[in-house]
Amino acid sequence: MEVIIQPNPEAASRLGARYIARLLREKPHAVLGLATGSTPLKLYAELIRLHREEGLDFSRATTFNLDEYLDLPRDHAATYRRFMEENLFRHVNLRPERTFIPQSDLPGEKVAAYCEAYEEEIRRAGGIDLQILGIGGDGHIGFNEPSSSLASRTRIKTLTARTRSDNAPFFASPAEVPHHVITMGIGTILEAREVLLFAFGAGKADAIAASIEGPLTSFVPASSLQLHRRARFLLDEAAAAKLTRQDYYRWVFDQKPLWQNP
Ligand code: PGA
Fold it and tell me: Is the pTM of this model over 0.90?
């Protein structure tokens, strides 16, 4: 794992965008795994800037989002499809038919087959080259809540009370937050060739310390990234504050050979 501590979310997001831009320049038909939430907003803003000002080209790329609510009409303002349209898709030159996000209004009896088809679509696209992740205060990635199987695949999950309340601001009332979601599994995420996990703010410090320096456990889903060969954590100072080896991580980053930098 590579732990990169930056002075603030802006700097971490700019650096993250450079990793993605490097991938797209080396492999224009790259497959990106995308995340929603407040954390990647600055990253997406920087990718949009790179597209507008430096010609970063998304025209041959494919994207798969991690997750989506269930039991929400497709045109609901809180769907992750809407989030992605507003915060990235409509501002860059991705082909709409190459942006995959689980469907929010599936009837219950269709969910299992739909999840299998989503996995199949990822395989058909050649697998995910780079997966962007945020992290929940409880260590969840995607909507893989604590106790999710480390081998899990795309499936229906039930949100914890904490996640429902964290996400309530995006709904008219807390009661409106769906109980169920579709999420890529931890096994799905671990198959991405490269992972960039972003975490900002003191509210993420415990989850980050547990994920990076704690034991591998399904109770902290992001600790599963200890098994990944190319996982980078991009943190601001506040999210990194509870790591015991901060000095070492900073030293490693400062010693990086120039050719490794994006
Ligand atoms: P956030 O959510 O980016 O809004 O903090 C992250 C998550 O719950 O995965």
Answer: yes
